[in-house]
Amino acid sequence: MTTATTRRTARRGRSANSQQPTANSRLVPWARLVAAARRARGNAYAPYSRFAVGAALLTADGTIVAGANVEISSYGLTLCAERSALVAAVSAGHRRFRALALVAGRGTPASPCGACRQALHEFAPDLPIRLVSLDGRTRDTSLRELLPLGFGPGDLRRGRG
To answer: Which of 10, 37, 53, 113 has the most CB atoms around its CB within 10 Å?
Structure first.
C-alpha cells in the first residue's frame, strides 16, 4: 500500500487496514468523541511513562464521558484512560455504551491494554472503537475484534451449572 493511500484513508476516518465501519458506528458523532478524548488527554498524569492518553465513551443516551490515564509511582495502581472513563461513566449511572474514542501517541494509533479490553467487555462487547494518534492517523475497530473471546457475565452464569 502506498503512503498516499494511507493518508487518504486516514483522512476519511479509518486506516487502510481497518474494517469497514458498522451501521452503528456510522451513527456515532466521532468528531465530538475524538475531541473529548483529546481534551481529556491534556489532563493525563503520566510523569513516569510520559505517554498521555485520553479516552471518551459515548453512552446510550448520548452523554460523552471522558477519562485520562493516571500513573502512580506504585505502577500496579496506575489507571488507564479507558478504565478512567468507564469508572466515571458507571459512577454516574451509565451502564450502556455506544462507542469509544482513544487518543494517544504518534504513528500507529495505540490500542487499549488487555485489562481495559476486559473491563469494557463487561458492558459493551461489540463496542465500536476509534483509535487516533496525535499525528492524525486513525483506525476504526471494535472491542469484539480486539478481544474476540472475551469473558463476560454470561460465562459466569454458564459455569454455575
So the answer is: 37
Q: Indicate whether 134 belongs to any domain.
A: yes
Give pLDDT tens digits along the chain (161 positions): 333 323 333 433 443 334 444 546 678 999 999 999 999 999 999 999 999 999 999 999 999 999 999 999 999 999 999 999 999 999 999 999 999 999 999 999 999 999 999 999 999 999 999 999 999 999 999 999 999 999 998 888 887 66
For the chain, what is the domain count?
Answer: 1
Q: What are the Cα distances from residue 41, in Å, to 19, 84, 130?
A: 26, 11, 15
Q: Alpha-carbon distance 138 to 102, whole Å? A: 10
| Residue 153 located in a structural domain | no
Does the active-site annotation cover 82? yes
Catalytic residue from among 71, 82, 122, 145 = 82
159 is a domain residue:
no
